[in-house]
Amino acid sequence: MLSKYHWHFSKKISESQAYETLKEAGEDYSPAFLSICFNRGLHSIEAIKKATDQEPTLYHDPFKLYQMDKAVERIHRAIEKEEKILIYGDYDADGITSTLILKEALDTLGADSQVYLPNRFTDGYGPNVDRYQTFIDQGIQLIVTVDNGVAGHEAIQVAQDKGVDVIVTDHHELQATLPVAYAIIHPRHPKGDYPFGDLSGAGVAFKVATAILDEIPVEMLDLVAIGTVADMVSLLDENRTLVIGGIKQLKVTDRPGLQLLFKENLQSIDDLSAETIGFLIGPRLNAVGRLGDPRPGFDWLAALTKEEASNLLDFIESENRQRQELVSQIFEEVSDRINSSQDIPSIICQASTTWHPGVLGIVASRICDLYQRPCLLFFYDEEKHQYRGSARSKETFNLFENLSQIKQYLLHFGGHSQAAGMTIEEDSWEDFQKQLQLLAEKEQDSIKTKPSLNIDASLAVSDISLQLIEEIQSLGPFGMHNPKPVILFEDLTMTDKRLIGTNKQHVKLQFEANASKDSLAAIAFSMADNLQDCQVGNRLNVVGELSINEWKKQKECQLIVKDIAVDGVWWIDYRGKSQLEKLQKLSQVVYCFQDEKHAKSFSNGLDSNHQIMLYEEIDQKLEYEDLVLMEPPKNLDQLRTLLKVQTWQKIYLVSIVVESRYLAGLPQREEFAKLYRFLLEKKQIQLKDFQDISNYLVIPLIKIKTMIVVFFEAGFVTIKDGLVIMNMIEQANKHDLMQLPAMQKYQQAMEAERVLNFQTIDQVKSWINEEI
């Protein structure tokens, strides 16, 4: 329970396999690292050495790319004839870097070239007919696309018809028919036999540069690494060589823009890695393209002086901050809309006239991740009467396939299983939403299924060392098709929890292994909401990625948490805490009370979907799977029935007691005698005076109330019109007061209170496990 993912375990290796490998490896590898390697499919020392080689030299022959020879001949001819060449790029990090790679290669050969990076809002993606026409009118004689073109049929046809050749270099999905270009350079061209099909746009541009220069331009590998990592393509095969080489080049880069960025954001250049590209460089390049003109990103990378680079970096940082603010603002607005609705929809679909369309994909991804639902977000263009949107999905729901079923309502549509973009005319909007709802109803199982998380190894905390983490890092660079190893640690106790970060969105954690008492430091990024119910003392299973945390030259092993789970029901201890506001904001829960008046009072403050029930009412399966025990039951049989009625995922133990029977204790015979003598003396008392009587007799109020009921059951008193009246009783009329129903109920309530309120949460769970 609690886990966000379905944990998928790799096939475990046998002890004999591990032993043989250990013998063959000598002392070069730790047993824990070999276990990880085996589970990742590296079943020989040769395979392990290849996967950990940090000096790879795998460069495939660029002329194995279909029509490369034709493209190179045409480019050289254009250079010789001093033709004007246009490099037509794209507005993301991969498009920007691939444009600069080809520009620098052509500059080396003395070509007359210029670049154009389209604006996503005015030009759209890929070849644009009007833009091509403008450049042709200006005298362009050869167009070379980078990171786009395989879907640009119309614009390319226009150029070719006017005698302007177009060479397409691209890596995106190939359609059934290809444009009629002079040449198409694509690693998965159906007529080619290039041995690796997962190059990025920058990778393809690099192969073109290699071919026209007739040598590998190592100085451009920094750009290739940025484009490859930022575009999230496979980091295996040739891409591994390109990225490792690119990271080394980045560490010694002479590009002023990158030097400034690293100086301001890295403690040491040795810290630079693929993660640096993914979190530091890529987002900044993408930010300018998301918000408008991507050209400043290109100029920043191409800048030759620190002054020019500094001014451009200031602008890029400003754009990136604006992008972050827009994302946060829209994310909060969408979250508020969802949380204020009665139910979280199976497919989240929201629109606004104020949202910036350039960042909707990022927001949709975060919303999808938080609520584990496919998410479609739209900007409504009031001038064009169109909805322009971005969508993201979890792996269990194929976005592209499902939206393809209702594409008749989409003016423009494209994407893949987890991401898509689309435009919808206003007249089709309502019909689209209705069809989307029908899709959601049909795909309930796939939407509710947890996405999978592959676990590479189950280790003990005692296995963790700096050596092991360094061994793991040798499997990098990490990314698509080569993720960081995910490790499982079972039966840990949380010993510390602290919220950190500007908005307290991250969680710093400390765990202790229950078997060995070894400790493990951990951090969970952007998981404050997910882990708000995790408490110190909880016993948990934790999965994550191992890393080295360095502070003041001290190195510490650290786990980057990916997911947390508990075996069985997840009990959350809210006893004795001021959590009323938080409790009232819980969604899709069953609140259980003993007292009907308390239940009605509590329900007045609720603003989310829920059920409120009394213990005595629950005898069949309920709508929700999270339970809040607001009060202890009247007896433990009621609790047994409640816990058996269905499988609960979370149980919040609140157990509010207005008057504690357990603390008051069981009424004693001398207390009965004391109250009896008082009643004989007074003849009658008023119910409203019970508190005064309690104070006078020094007997807890809850006992006074109970003993009066016991006297009533024994026939000693009559209760009428707010009065307790003493009866005249024959001396022979004796009762065992302790066996009367009110005393039995008191004892049963006392025991229920003891179990739920006066035991540790682990003792409560142990009692439940024994009883049910």
From TrEMBL:
Residues 348-438 form the DHHA1 domain. SUPFAM superfamilies: DHH phosphoesterases. Residues 84-228 form the DDH domain. Pfam families: DHH (PF01368), DHHA1 (PF02272), RecJ_OB (PF17768), ssDNA-exonuc_C (PF10141). Residues 572-768 form the Single-stranded-DNA-specific exonuclease RecJ C-terminal domain. The keyword Plastid does not apply. One of its GO terms (molecular function) is nucleic acid binding. Residues 455-563 form the RecJ OB domain. Keywords: Exonuclease, Hydrolase, Nuclease. One of its GO terms (biological process) is DNA repair. It comes from the Bacteria. Belongs to the RecJ family. This is Single-stranded-DNA-specific exonuclease RecJ. It comes from Facklamia miroungae.
